[in-house]
Amino acid sequence: MLGKTGSGKSSAGNIILGEKKFHASFSFESVTRNCEKREVTVLGRKISVIDTPGLFDTSLSEEDLKAKIKNCVQLAVPGPHAFLLVIRLDARFTAEERNTVKWIQENFGEDALKHTIVLFTHADQLVMPLDQFIKVSQPLEHLIKSCAGGYHSFNNVNSGDRFQAQKLVDKIDALVRKYYTNEMFQQAQEEINQKEEREKEEEERKIREREEQIREEERRRIERENQEMQTRLRMAEEARRKLEKELEERNRISEEIRRLQEQQNRTRQGVNNRKSGESSEESSGTCCRKPSGTVIGLLVGITLAIVVAGVTIPVAIVYKIHLLAEIAVPIGFIFLPLMGSLIGCICKIMKQPREGERQHLIN
Ligand SMILES: Nc1nc2c(ncn2[C@@H]2O[C@H](COP(=O)(O)OP(=O)(O)O)[C@@H](O)[C@H]2O)c(=O)[nH]1
Ligand SMILES: [Mg+2]
């Protein structure tokens, strides 16, 4: 008996056996925790029923589920005549139940469907003929077509109706040409194991490929980053060299400026020295700015006075003009040196450059 919890497996088992051998209860929790086998002998014929927990709706781990299924089949040694897929008629046909065909094949092998009968329970709740009800539901029809044993219905409430159980046994008898043996199960298990092995290998291969791909991507990323780093280093090196050049250039300019400033300072100092020399001469009491100019003027004046005297005296002697000699000579000797000195002094002042012009020259 296979089916969801509460589908009526245990109740249907009791109907088949004609006795209340399994505990049936309305509970969402699976009452039957392990596979249980009950037997009766009716008219010399032994009938065995194996009840199962709601295998597709339990939260069993893959390993536990496999162990339970294996246990089920071992209980049915040499193998079950039929798998009864129990579905209740008064509830929605769930997606879980739609996948039952696949589930049976995966867990009991491809051939298990040849021995499967869909057993509907809660027939007493049905408001229309069963075949009509099936036709309305396409998934249900599809499920029944997948199972070689077709379908049958039970009203588990009516335990006194032995006819429904007998009809099912007849159907099973008609179906069974060959036992679903332990060997078949083992073969099926082997195939399932091989498939799992193949899937595992495939999975491992994919993981290896993915790892390889990740490593390759990582390697490329590092390479790319290295290249970028080197480019950046190169650029930094170029920038450094450029800065060094600029620094050298600046140092050179600073040196040049310093040299020019020194030169300028020296020039300034020279000018200042000259200025202080002049001012010291001025303060020594000379009437003119440049004594050399005054001296020259004085000498020229004296020379001119001598020349005038040299000309005037002979003329005054020859022509006996005593007054000329007496007046012109003294006047010449006083006036001309004075005039010479004055002219020399003025020339000197005019030749002297102005302070502003001098500063301009220094700069
Ligand atoms: N009305 C009605 N109730 C049913 C029928 N079959 C089972 N039940 C009830 O459904 C509940 C669950 O049944 P059970 O056999 O324990 O389901 P299991 O979990 O699949 O074994 C119980 O309360 C049963 O009395 C049926 O054909 N008609
Ligand atoms: Mg049960």
Automatic annotation (TrEMBL):
The segments labelled Disordered in the record are 190-217, 261-288
Q: Does the keyword Protein transport apply?
A: no
Q: Where is the composition biased (Basic and acidic residues)?
A: 192-217
Enumerate composition-biased segments (Polar residues): 262-274
Q: Which keywords belong to this entry?
A: GTP-binding, Membrane, Nucleotide-binding, Transmembrane, Transmembrane helix
Question: Pfam family example for this protein?
Answer: AIG1
Domain (AIG1-type G) spans: 1-189
Q: Kindly list the residue ranges recorded as spanning the membrane.
A: 295-321, 327-350
Q: Which InterPro entries match?
A: G_AIG1, GIMA/IAN/Toc, P-loop_NTPase
Q: Which GO molecular function, any one, fits this protein according to its record?
A: GTP binding
- Give the highest taxon in the source lineage: Eukaryota
Family assignment? Belongs to the TRAFAC class TrmE-Era-EngA-EngB-Septin-like GTPase superfamily. AIG1/Toc34/Toc159-like paraseptin GTPase family. IAN subfamily.
What PANTHER family does its record include?
GTPASE IMAP FAMILY MEMBER 2-LIKE-RELATED (PTHR10903:SF188), GTPASE, IMAP FAMILY MEMBER-RELATED (PTHR10903)
Question: What is the official name of this protein in its record?
Answer: AIG1-type G domain-containing protein
